[in-house]
Write a structure and sequence with these properties.
The protein is mostly helical. The chain starts with a helix and ends with a helix. The relative contact order is 0.19.
């Protein structure tokens, strides 16, 4: 399986990653709602535990779109998707530690980390829109920090960006196939 075939396999199995972006956006939005209704700490935990459900939820959504939700076992890009989790876990640790001193930095740090991780999705799916998504999330993280917006703002901004991009990714992925 060459690189382009591997990307095609990933696009086919996971609706070009649109279902993952949608699942993630919904989790971010849920974390925002939890923060409004319960507390900042509960919001952070909602993002953490909800984040564990992103992949299973994205597989379910892929299947609802008549996709397999499973890539070819010979697809070497599966390693890149897995390896990117290290960035995510390191970022979560940093965000939780920093939040003990300044909770306003939790979501901006997470936006930076998630944005950086999305940059690698261009290699996985072969869609340059992931560079735009990653860059926009990172920019949002910077802006939230610079302008010291409310704690919850980051959750809703991140969720909104990912939900909008899930549709854009789906449309672009269909054109690529």
């Amino acid at each position: 399986m060459n690189h382009q075939q591997s990307q095609q396999d990933m696009r086919s199995a996971y609706a070009s990653g649109a279902t993952g972006a949608l699942a993630s956006g919904l989790i971010w939005t849920l974390a925002g709602v939890v923060g409004l209704l319960i507390s900042e700490k509960a919001s952070m935990l909602a993002l953490f535990f909800g984040g564990m459900m992103i992949f299973p939820l994205s597989v379910l959504l892929s299947k609802l779109l008549k996709r397999s939700g499973k890539h070819d076992p010979n697809n070497d890009l599966r390693h890149l998707a897995f390896e990117g989790l290290g960035i995510l876990f390191a970022g979560l640790f940093i965000a939780f530690v920093v939040a003990q001193y300044n909770s306003l930095l939790f979501f901006p740090i997470m936006l930076l980390i998630i944005g950086a991780r999305y940059l690698t999705f261009q290699s996985i799916y072969g869609l340059k829109i992931y560079w735009l998504l990653g860059g926009l999330l990172m920019l949002a993280g910077f802006m939230l920090t610079i302008f010291s917006l409310s704690f919850i703002a980051g959750a809703f901004i991140g969720g909104g960006i990912e939900i909008v991009f899930s549709w854009l990714i789906y449309v672009q992925g269909r054109k690529a196939d």
